[in-house]
Amino acid sequence: MEDTGLASELERLQALAMELGARVDDEGAPAAARELCGALAASVDRVIRLAAGSNGGNAGPGKSNGHPRNSCRKAGAAKTRTQVRVASVQDTGPLNDGLSWRKYGQKDILGAPYPRAYFRCTHRNTRGCQATKQVQRAAADPLLFDVVYIGAHTCAQQGAALPLLINREQEQQQQPPVFGQEQGSPAATEAQTLSWPVVEPVTPFSFPSSPGAIDGCYMLPSSGYAAIDGLGLDMEYEPQLDEFFFDPSELFQP
DNA sequence: GTGATTTGACCATC
DNA sequence: GATGGTCAAATCAC
Length: 254
Hints:
The protein is about 30% helix and about 15% strand. The protein is an alpha+beta fold. A hairpin with a 6-residue loop joins β4 and β5. The model is unreliable at about 55-75, about 90-95 and about 160-254 (pLDDT under 50).
C-alpha cells in the first residue's frame, strides 16, 4: 500500500542522509559521528533496496515464512498486529518508543540467530492494558530490530504516544528533519554526545523501563510506515501479514 | 524493599 | 512432536 509514498519518502531519507554526511564532513564532526553517518546511509540504502526489490517479503529473518504460526494463535485473539523494523546505533537494543514495557520472556526462535524477547505493558495488571510486543534482532543486521506490536494500549500511555505521532507527522510536513534530533531522550542524548545541533523535543518523554531492551519507533498515520528514532532508521511493512494493520488510532484505542 | 529481568517449565497450536 | 507464547520462581539492580 502507498508504494509511491513509501518510495518518495525513502528517497527523501536517502537525500537527507547524504546531506547529513556532507555536513558532518564539513564541520569536522568526531569520527564516531562520521561512522554513524556512514551506517545511517548504508541502512537507508538497504531499506530502499528491500522496499523496491524484494516486494518486502524476505526483508526480515524468517518472518513471512519463518513463523507461520505467529498470527495470533490464541483462540479469539484477533488483535491488532503491527510490525516495524527499527534500528539502533547502540548495541544494547533499539531505542525508547515512549511506552513502558516489561519483559516477561525470551525464546530462541528456530532459524533465527538471535532470541526473541517478549514484552507486555507495565500497566497490564494495574490498568488491564493488553498491549504486548515482540522484539527480535534481525539476522542480516544486528543493529536492526524487528518489533511486532500486538494489541492496543488501553492504559494512559496512549495520551503520550498519540501526540507524539501527530507532532512527528506535522514536524515532517513543516520542516526537513535532522537526524539525531528525534524526540526520544536516548536519541537526544546521542545527538548531544555527537555535538550535533539539537532542537527542542516535540514531546518530552522517557520511559527507560528496561535499559537493555528498549526500542523506538514512530508510526506515521498518513504514510503508513515507521520512521525510527536513534539515528539509525529503518522500517518494514509486511504486506503478506494478514493481521497487519497500520492504523495508530486502532493501536491505541481503548 | 520494591520492581524489573532472567530462565526453565508449561501450555496451546499446528 | 515441534515450535512459539506465557507463566512464575529466582535473581538482580536501584
